[in-house]
Design goal:
422 residues, alpha+beta, Beta Polymerase, domain 2, cca-adding enzyme, domain 2, 7-stranded mixed β-sheet, binds cytidine-5'-triphosphate
C-alpha cells in the first residue's frame, strides 16, 4: 500500500476492495485517474471515482455493478459507463482510449488505446496522473506531481485549448479553486485560443455545462473575476458587460445564501447557481436574457426563474421598500416568486424595509393557507365555481392581515361576504 492509497476516503473502501478483486480475477490493468488522483495528492476529499481500464471498461463496470444495487448507464460510442449508487457515490468507468479532434471545438473521434494514450488526451498535467489498482503505484508521465508542488496548471500540448475550448474555463476554475497559477506558456496558448474566439465556437450546451460547474464552485466570484480579466463575457452574449458593481453582488450572494441556510427557510432544494447567473446577466435587458437562456438551452424551470427576476415591476420594488406594507401585499408580491428570485432581490437592493419584508415573508407568511375548504363552502350552500377562488383569496388576505385567526372566524367572514353579495 502506498501512502496515497491510505488517503482514500473510508466510504470508498468497500467498492475499491471489490474492484481490486475483479481486477485480479480478470487479469486486467485498471487505474484511478483524473481529478480523483489530483485531489488525493492535494488531500482534498473527492468521492467521484474515475476509473480507466486497459480493455473493456463497460464490461468491467457491469461486473462491478453486479455486486451492488446501483444503476449503470452505458455510453457505447465512447466506451464509457457510469455507475450511480446514490446521490453521494458516482463512479465513471472508461476503456483506455486515444482521441483525435477532427475539427477545433468539436467532439473527438475515439479509438482504443493504452493508459498512456488515455492520459495524453487529457487537459492538464495535474489531471493526467493515474494510480494502478493492482500495484497501488502512482503513474505520472507528465510531471503532474511536480506541477502541483509548483502550483502550476500546464497543458499537455499547445493545441489543447483549440481542440477543446471548455479547457479555457477549466484552467481558470482549477486555478482559482486550488490557488494555482496558469503557467506562462499555457497562458499564452489560452490567450491565443481566446483571440481565435474559440469560446464563441464552442457548442452552447457545452458552454452551459461548464458555466454551471463554475457557478456551483465554492467561490464562483473568484473564477468570474479571472474570466472577466482574461476573456470578458462577450462569449455568453455580445452585449454582456459585467461592471464592478456586479462583482460586489457576487460577494453579497454568498453572504445571503449563508443567511438563508442559517434561517432554515428552505422548503425545497435550491439552485444557488441560478442566483449567480441572474447577477452575471444583470446588466442585460429582458430580451437579451431570454436569448441567453435559449442559446444555452437552459431548462424551462431555470429560464422561468431567471426571467421572473427580470420582470419584477418597479411598483413591487417600491412597495417592498416602503416603511409599512400590509402583509397581504408582501404575500402577493413574494409568494409567486422562487426562493432564488427572492434571495436575488435581497442581494440587489440594500433598502432595509425591503430586507425586513422579505424576512417577514420567509418567517411568517410563506406558504400560508386558509383553514376552510371547498367542502365548507359547499356545506354553506355555495355553488362550486370561480367564486370559490375569490372567497379563498379574500379569506387569506384577512388571515395575513390578522383580521381572522381561527377556522370559526374564517367561516364567519365568509358568511358576511356572502350576505353582502346577496
Ligand atoms: N478532462 C479533460 N478535458 C476536459 C474534461 C475532462 O481532459 N475538457 C479529463 C481530465 O483528466 C479530468 C477528467 O477528464 O480530470 C475528469 O473530468 P471531470 O470530472 O470533468 O473533472 P475533474 O478533474 O474530476 O474536476 P472536478 O473536481 O471539477 O469534478
Amino acid at each position: 500500500m502506498t501512502k496515497l492509497f491510505k488517503k482514500i476516503p473510508e466510504e470508498l473502501n468497500i467498492y475499491i476492495l471489490n474492484m481490486r478483486q475483479i481486477t485480479r480475477r480478470s487479469n486486467l490493468s485498471v487505474y484511478f485517474v483524473g481529478g480523483f488522483v489530483r485531489d488525493l495528492i492535494l488531500g482534498v476529499k473527492n468521492l467521484d471515482l474515475d476509473i480507466v481500464v486497459e480493455g473493456d471498461g463497460i464490461k468491467f463496470a457491469n461486473d462491478f455493478a453486479g455486486l451492488f444495487m446501483g444503476k449503470v448507464t452505458e455510453h457505447k460510442n465512447f466506451g464509457t459507463a457510469t455507475f450511480v449508487l446514490n446521490e453521494f457515490l458516482k463512479i465513471d468507468f472508461s476503456s483506455a482510449r486515444r482521441e483525435i479532434y477532427p475539427k477545433p471545438a468539436q467532439l473527438p473521434i475515439v479509438s482504443p488505446g493504452s493508459l498512456r494514450d488515455d492520459l495524453l488526451r487529457r487537459d492538464f498535467t495535474i489531471n493526467a496522473m493515474a494510480i494502478s489498482l493492482s500495484t497501488s503505484r502512482l503513474i505520472d508521465y507528465f510531471d503532474g506531481v511536480n506541477d502541483l508542488r509548483l502550483k502550476k496548471i500546464r497543458v499537455l500540448h499547445p493545441l489543447s485549448f483549440i481542440d477543446d475550448p471548455t479547457r479555457i474555463l477549466r484552467a481558470i476554475r482549477f486555478e482559482q479553486r486550488y490557488g494555482l497559477k496558469i503557467e506562462h506558456k499555457t497562458l499564452m496558448f489560452l490567450k491565443e485560443a481566446l483571440d481565435l474566439k474559440m469560446l464563441e465556437k464552442l457548442h452552447p450546451h457545452r458552454l452551459r455545462d461548464d458555466l454551471i460547474i463554475i457557478l456551483k464552485e465554492n467561490n464562483p466570484d473568484r473564477v468570474l473575476k479571472r474570466i472577466q480579466k482574461l476573456a470578458g463575457f462577450k462569449f455568453i452574449h455580445p452585449a454582456l458587460k459585467v461592471p464592478a458593481k456586479t462583482f460586489s453582488l457576487f460577494k453579497s450572494i454568498k453572504k445571503e445564501i449563508n443567511w438563508f441556510k442559517a434561517g432554515c427557510f428552505e422548503r425545497r432544494s435550491m439552485d444557488y447557481w441560478i442566483i449567480y447567473l441572474m447577477a452575471l446577466l444583470d446588466s442585460l435587458d429582458l430580451n437579451c436574457v431570454k436569448k441567453v437562456c435559449e442559446k444555452l438551452g437552459l431548462r424551462k424551470g431555470e429560464t422561468k426563474r431567471i426571467l421572473a427576476y427580470k420582470q419584477i415591476s418597479k411598483k413591487s420594488i417600491s412597495d417592498l421598500s416602503s416603511s409599512s406594507l400590509k402583509p397581504s401585499r408582501i404575500f402577493a408580491i413574494l409568494e409567486p416568486l422562487s426562493y432564488e428570485v427572492i434571495l436575488m432581490l435581497k442581494v440587489k437592493y440594500s433598502n432595509r424595509n425591503l430586507k425586513r419584508h422579505i424576512l417577514e415573508f420567509l418567517e411568517i407568511y410563506n406558504g400560508m393557507r386558509v383553514f376552510v375548504s371547498g367542502d365548507d363552502l359547499h356545506g354553506m350552500g355555495l355553488k362550486p365555481g370561480p367564486s370559490y377562488q375569490k372567497i379563498f383569496a379574500q379569506v387569506l388576505n384577512a388571515k395575513l392581515n390578522s383580521k381572522v385567526r381561527t377556522k370559526e372566524e374564517e367561516l364567519a367572514l365568509i358568511k358576511s361576504l356572502v350576505k353582502k353579495r346577496s
